[in-house]
């Protein structure tokens, strides 16, 4: 059995993005859960085992870190079809919600149980013992409040078990998750690292390294504006705001339901309507293509004005800033509205990532770079320490 497997997990409000090992496996799971009973009905076990496990995550989660322990959940795509599905609420703290931990454990368990990872973990009968080196993050506001310390300690020093119930391919299997180390990074800092560092820890954007820049990371529940100077985040100047796109997406979803009688399963469906390349801002109503531009424009422009106000206030206090990068799933949703506002108002030097995947996966990529760099340095230090060398030989 080899050492701990690397996991970089971004528990985003919209979805969880995760990278594993030598970036050999990735997962993207909607951040939706629903409490469930053990015997959910399934048509034919053969049919069940032909499906993708990611579309049928049905688990019992046991962990001392959870407030509600030993509960059965539908997770991700399966949960979106439930009447009692829950998504993270605006105003909640990611570090203090059971849902964040359930999504994290479910994601790790899906990686651990794969046949391809049999050499990485010990497996006895239907129980996999999996050890991870985890890189993840929290909004800047929560890190400044010290919530990262409690979040990290909840994960370390305990065993967290995920039992797959009526899940394709993995039914009846259990995964015991332990952590060798957990690194919790502030989200704004992570975005900067992703811009300047490659997967091998080398600087790839020297022009950016010594500039004073802002990074405005717009998420579902929060917005972080990191102030980068002298290659570091200025902790005093950086700010986190309790403002994200979730509330606006929920308002769009509700108005579409009220006006058109169309029920969308989750906020992810709203995001797809807003950002898809063809027929953007259109839905099908009784088989007819129908525009919802009036709803999306009004609600999203109002949110974009609030986000722009935050940018303006932070830029005023950091007048020597050269550029602001907008990142995160929320930035993709608000991109055109923010560009229009900026063109008609202050004309700041702002930049968006045109590649949607690059923007949405930025945090997971950053955590991957940071945790692999930590692992690399750790191994190097161990190799140089005679005591560690002796232990390694034994």
Automatic annotation (TrEMBL):
Residues 213-351 form the Alp7A-like C-terminal domain. It comes from the Bacteria. Residues 8-189 form the Actin-like protein N-terminal domain. It holds the Pfam family Alp7A_like_C. InterPro entries: Alp7A-like_C, ALP_N, ATPase_NBD. This is Uncharacterized protein. It comes from Jeotgalibacillus proteolyticus.
């Amino acid at each position: 059995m080899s050492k701990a497997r690397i996991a970089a997990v971004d528990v985003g409000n919209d979805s969880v993005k995760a990278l594993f090992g030598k970036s050999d496996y990735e997962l993207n799971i909607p951040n939706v859960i629903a409490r469930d009973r053990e015997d959910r009905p399934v048509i034919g076990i053969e049919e069940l085992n032909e499906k993708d496990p990611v579309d049928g995550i049905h688990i019992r989660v046991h962990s001392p870190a959870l407030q509600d322990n030993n509960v059965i959940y539908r997770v991700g795509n399966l949960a979106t079809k439930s009447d009692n599905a829950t998504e993270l609420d605006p105003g909640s703290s990611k570090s203090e919600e059971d849902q964040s931990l359930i999504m994290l454990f479910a994601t790790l368990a899906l990686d651990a149980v794969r046949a391809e990872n049999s050499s990485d973990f010990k497996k006895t009968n239907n129980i996999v013992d999996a050890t991870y080196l985890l890189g993840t993050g929290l909004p800047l506001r929560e890190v400044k409040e010290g919530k990262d310390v409690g979040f990290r300690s909840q994960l370390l020093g305990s065993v967290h078990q995920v039992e797959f119930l009526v899940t394709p391919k993995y039914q009846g299997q259990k995964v015991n998750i332990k952590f060798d180390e957990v690194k919790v990074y502030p989200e704004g800092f992570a975005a900067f690292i992703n811009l300047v560092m490659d997967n091998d820890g080398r600087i790839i954007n020297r022009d950016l390294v010594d500039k004073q820049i802002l990074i405005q990371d717009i998420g579902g529940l929060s917005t972080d504006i990191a102030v980068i100077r002298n290659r570091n985040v200025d902790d005093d100047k950086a700010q986190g705001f309790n403002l994200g796109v979730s509330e606006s997406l929920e308002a769009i979803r509700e108005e579409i339901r009220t006006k058109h009688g169309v029920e969308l399963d989750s906020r992810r469906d709203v995001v797809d309507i807003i950002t898809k390349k063809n027929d953007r801002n259109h839905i099908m109503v009784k088989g007819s293509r129908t525009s919802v531009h009036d709803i999306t424009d009004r609600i999203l422009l109002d949110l974009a004005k609030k986000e722009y106000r935050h940018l303006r206030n932070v830029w005023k206090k950091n007048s020597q800033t050269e550029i602001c990068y907008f990142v995160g799933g929320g930035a993709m949703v608000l991109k055109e509205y923010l560009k229009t506002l900026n063109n008609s108002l202050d004309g700041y030097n702002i930049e968006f990532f045109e590649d949607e995947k690059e923007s949405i996966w930025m945090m997971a990529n950053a955590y991957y770079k940071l945790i692999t760099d930590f692992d690399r340095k750790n191994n190097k230090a161990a190799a140089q320490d005679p005591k560690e060398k002796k232990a390694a030989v034994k």
